[in-house]
Specification:
The chain is an alpha+beta fold. The protein has helices spanning 5-32, 76-81, 109-119, 173-177, 182-185, 197-203, 238-243, 268-276, 306-312, 367-383, 388-396, and strands spanning 56-61, 83-87, 93-96, 100-103, 129-135, 139-145, 151-155, 161-164, 169-172, 190-192, 211-221, 230-235, 257-262, 283-290, 296-301, 323-328, 334-339, 360-363. It has three domains: 56-135, wza like domain (wza like fold, 2-Layer Sandwich); 139-276, Outer membrane lipoprotein wza fold like (Roll); 283-365, Roll (Outer membrane lipoprotein wza fold like), CATH 3.10.560. It has eleven helices and 18 strands. Helix 10 (367-383) packs antiparallel against helix 11.
Length: 397
């Protein structure tokens, strides 16, 4: 046993050394926690913003000797720093000193910078140009599929815009603020600085019971330098409302097409999360008519079912017929369901579906009431003003 003592000694010493080294490494890593490398400031994201009519560009020549390019500029400060602003006209052109009218629509900032630096080599030895967008044009985006109101929407390219909570309409901030006092202004909710996917879905009325927001398709214009044409991507938007994943809430660009896929099953839990995240409006208007106590338009919670609406309308009268649901779908088709009233039907089932804005719930007349109408028509010539119909109507109602 003694002959193994040196070996055991070295093993023990080795373990102590490794433990000590591990402790030092851990301490070094711990000291680095919270530190960010300077490389973070140099990160560059891919530029997919395509210039178009209405954008205003600030163009700055970096080298001092290039200031003479703007010799016709009346602003001394701009002439000093070589800065000027140019608005892209309706045809996609800007008018620049020396090189005159140039077509810039459809280019990214990076692409335009490279092209202008090449163009100005005729006048400047080593042109270095900085370009930024000082005003973004409004963008047009199209959303379709499983949203309440599909279609084309125009959103501000940049700038605050707000949603009026009462009727879910969207207004530009400056159009709303002017008519409000200071107290009301503080209540105006700011949606976004740049329009994002969440804003568009919210403005379109929110998702439906069959929206598969874990697989939303985005179709976008591709920059010329990346091959042009269209590119597609899929977004798991469920992560946005479940986990607050901002990376999935992408910024929208002009010409984007958003397709909210349809699920084969009802996703009531997903709809509930959408309501809690403020993605969907909390209330909607439906119409209840026929054999109910209070006929007309009623406002219900977004998660309400047909039976909830009937109950809010005062309930069904004793003598009644089948219930009919009329619904106008986003694809333009009219859906109709007719069934016997079932007060204990499961929420979301065929006989007790979740409601959509504009649904019409009609409670029909029962056989006895229909017989009453026939008797009234037959006997009215003989009974005068107070007919059999009137007698039965007093009894039944």
């Amino acid at each position: 046993m003694k002959k193994y003592t040196p070996l055991i000694f070295f093993v023990v010493i080795g373990n102590l050394f490794l433990n000590s080294l591990a402790t030092k490494v851990k301490a070094n890593v711990s000291n680095l926690e919270g530190e960010i490398g300077i490389e973070y400031l140099k990160r560059k994201k891919e530029d997919f913003y395509l210039l178009g009519p209405g954008d205003i560009l600030s163009i700055r020549f970096i080298e001092p000797f290039s200031v003479d390019i703007y010799s016709d500029n009346s602003d001394p400060e701009n002439r000093l720093f070589g800065i000027n602003e140019f608005t892209i006209d309706g045809d996609g052109y800007i008018l620049l000193p020396r090189i005159s009218k140039v077509y810039v629509e459809g280019l990214t900032i990076t692409e335009l910078k490279k092209l202008l630096e090449k163009s100005y080599k005729e006048f400047i030895k080593r042109p270095m140009i900085e370009i930024s967008i000082t005003n973004f044009r409004p963008i047009n985006v199209y959303i379709e599929g499983e949203v309440v109101n599909s279609g084309l929407y125009t959103l501000p390219g940049r700038g605050e815009f707000v949603a009026q909570l009462n009727d879910n309409k969207v207004f530009y901030l400056d159009n709303v603020i002017s008519g409000l006092d200071n107290t009301e202004k503080n209540k105006v909710p700011n949606i976004a600085l740049f329009p994002k996917l969440f804003d568009l879905i919210k403005i379109s009325g929110g998702i439906t019971l069959y929206s598969d927001i874990s697989n939303i398709k985005i179709i976008r214009n591709n920059p010329i330098s990346k091959g042009g044409g269209k590119i597609e991507a899929n977004i798991n938007f469920l992560n946005v409302i479940e986990n607050g994943d901002k990376t999935q809430n992408i910024r929208l660009l002009d010409g984007d097409r958003i397709i909210v896929q349809k699920s084969d099953i009802e996703l009531d839990q997903q709809l509930s999360k959408a309501l809690k995240s403020n993605l969907n409006p909390k209330y909607l208007d439906v119409f209840v008519t026929g054999r109910v106590e209070n006929r007309g338009k009623i406002t219900v919670d977004k998660s309400s079912t047909l039976n909830d609406a009937i109950q809010l309308a005062g309930g069904i009268k004793v003598l009644r017929g089948p219930v009919e649901l009329t619904r106008y779908n986003s694809d333009g088709k009219i859906e109709k369901r007719k069934f016997g009233f079932s007060p204990n039907a499961k929420r979301g089932s065929y006989k007790n579906p979740y409601l959509k804005a504009g649904d019409i719930v009609s409670v029909g007349k029962g056989p006895l009431i229909k017989t009453n109408e026939v008797l009234g028509e037959v006997t009215s010539p003989f009974l005068g003003i107070y007919t059999t119909y009137s007698i039965l109507d007093d009894i039944l109602n």
